[in-house]
Model the fold of this input.
Amino acid sequence: MKTYLYPDKKDWKELLMRPSFDSSFLQKKVKSILNEVKLNGDEAVKKFTQQFDGVELENFIVDEKEIKEASALLSNELRQAIQQAAINIKSFHQKQITEVEVIETMPGVKCWRKSVAIEKVGLYIPGGTAPLFSTILMLGIPAQLAGCKEIILCSPPNKNGKMHPAILFAAQLVGVTKVYKIGGVQAIAAMAFGTESISQVNKIFGPGNQYVTCAKQLIQQEGIAIDMPAGPSEVCVLADDSADASFVAADLLSQAEHGIDSQVLLVSCSESLVQKVEEELNKQLELLSRNIIAKGALKNSKGIVLKNLNDAIELVNEYAPEHLIISCNDDELIAEKIMNAGSIFLGNYSPESVGDYASGTNHTLPTNGFAKAYSGISVDSFVKKITYQKLTQQGLQGISKAVELMAEAEGLDAHKNAVSIRIKN
Amino acid sequence: MKTYLYPDKKDWKELLMRPSFDSSFLQKKVKSILNEVKLNGDEAVKKFTQQFDGVELENFIVDEKEIKEASALLSNELRQAIQQAAINIKSFHQKQITEVEVIETMPGVKCWRKSVAIEKVGLYIPGGTAPLFSTILMLGIPAQLAGCKEIILCSPPNKNGKMHPAILFAAQLVGVTKVYKIGGVQAIAAMAFGTESISQVNKIFGPGNQYVTCAKQLIQQEGIAIDMPAGPSEVCVLADDSADASFVAADLLSQAEHGIDSQVLLVSCSESLVQKVEEELNKQLELLSRNIIAKGALKNSKGIVLKNLNDAIELVNEYAPEHLIISCNDDELIAEKIMNAGSIFLGNYSPESVGDYASGTNHTLPTNGFAKAYSGISVDSFVKKITYQKLTQQGLQGISKAVELMAEAEGLDAHKNAVSIRIKN
Done:
């Protein structure tokens, strides 16, 4: 971690710049896979599964038996942990379901808004070194609460053509309707366009590597919705002398172990705290199984010391971190002044990892500064909010003049006439 | 309007296909304008304003004096109509502001979610034949209710370098902070990247022609959020014999006058109604000032007769119209079964134009079938929902085992350690 002492405001922009990744060189390759799946369906998916995952599959769908057996392959303890997390996530997300309220804006003019589930959604869970079953909870539970009819899940098979039992256990727990052993760009293509065995979905969710991210961007341009733009995961810790340096270091490392492109930022007004955290980082780093990855990420990481708290808050808002941990005495007061962040963790006993797994909040959050304009995943992400209105004859009478005048001023006669013809009648 | 009698389900997909518009050939031109503004700022904006709008401007910003004078240039009646519409839109959207509710998912684990305004938003209002001041109300009022700090508006100047007074009146009414006389791709670029005189925004809203739409798509890929993907406006009327054919025809025409690419669909189980509407269309069409446009749109429009109501509902859901008018006896029951639509108008006295202008609902809605996954504009569009959590030491104790087990199973040691180090302490 490199330390920056009292950087000048005019240098903040550069200091806070994320490493930019240009995916345009991937586009050609990704486009050709998308097109081939669009054209040849299952046959193309089979071909790419053999090519990229190294397995030949007769069927992509995971059968009932395999799903049922998965539960027995997990330890009791892990099963209970996943169930506990699911309960918390459900109770937090349940409150996001909104009631219909009819508003009479003028006498006889009733308007209301209702959340209606997106019918078919697709969840993508990457393969790789670890089975990210926690992400299934984070996407599947709000989908289930929203009432989505079809919730399909794609994840790459391992070399033996199998899926990790924790993935399957989590999938059945949250009511995923079908699980397919398909990974990468071919999975995004299959869900976006549909094939003989996979039905087309309306919105695609979930993390992935650069190829998957690029595929999601491209299918978005064809009208399939996606959860949000993606970038490497990141944490910012804002800490004062009330923070425990060993806790702060542990939080920074828990982000750094994600990947060498992870972003880790420590912001403080205390030089001594930053120094203590630095020492703790070196101590804790050696004990980690993924220390090579964490070391890589720490190379790009920054400890920034600022003159005063106001500057620190301004810098955090400018950075707009995915995760923000506020380990300060005045944590709640400071949180009130944070305008841009995905999820905020307050105090000394709220490490990011509780939110990553089990406290109840969602861990799919805007990275890369997108927190300035985007929210994390919630039940909202799985519904459309449809508006409704019903006017009585008198209600129309009362509003008619305003509509007629405005339509006329916008030069739209037929808009005016749709009201006039009903009033004359 | 062409009539289709009892089409086979297998032909629905083709029947409901929107005319596709490939903007890829525009991309090169649009990209070069975006890049030039990014590079040369105001100077480039000036150049393109001269080139495309035919005016040379010293300053883009509309001064206070011009804004204040605008009000006097409108008739009292129009001013009152706009004010009435603004009141209704405000009372409908006000209810979309959500309260913070703290949820204790486990003892000592408190989680909550708060809506925080997107700091800087940009509204784009196209020029052209009519001044679309109603769209300023539809975008500006929810922005104001959300609490956005900067709400800037760009709209092209006319040949005299002026803006229509209704635009300026609406802008000051909804609290727009700055108005700029800039149009087209150069306006989108200026708001997306910022220039010497225009500050960069976090999200861009508003309709536009194919160039503007293409520019919005391109800047979205660079991380600036946009309201939603766009396509030509459309209405679908679902009507039974209780409908008045003259009302239905007027509604179809009010959509058809938007542009020759507008989509108009009539769905019914009554052959005789469709025939009566056809006759009414011909009668009313001749009286419209924009009848050449409306005639063009009607050429691509369809009257579809189906066997029964269930089929009709299924077809409407498949089409996912931007606006749906249900002129049927059982309008409310039918509305319950509609899963995909932007905004729904019930009964014989709820023409689309009341929602377009003044009833209170928003008129910026998902077109092109996007209603399957997207919502119209609301206060939600102008906020991010940030999640928060604060655990007590005991709260962390209670949840620690679940987090440790899950992190371990995902192979993420440092995530586990961020909890363990606090528990051991």
About this structure: Chain A has a mean pLDDT of 95. Residues 24-105+117-226 of chain A form a domain with the Rossmann fold fold (CATH 3.40.50.1980). Chain A has three domains: 2-19+232-360, 24-105+117-226, 392-424.
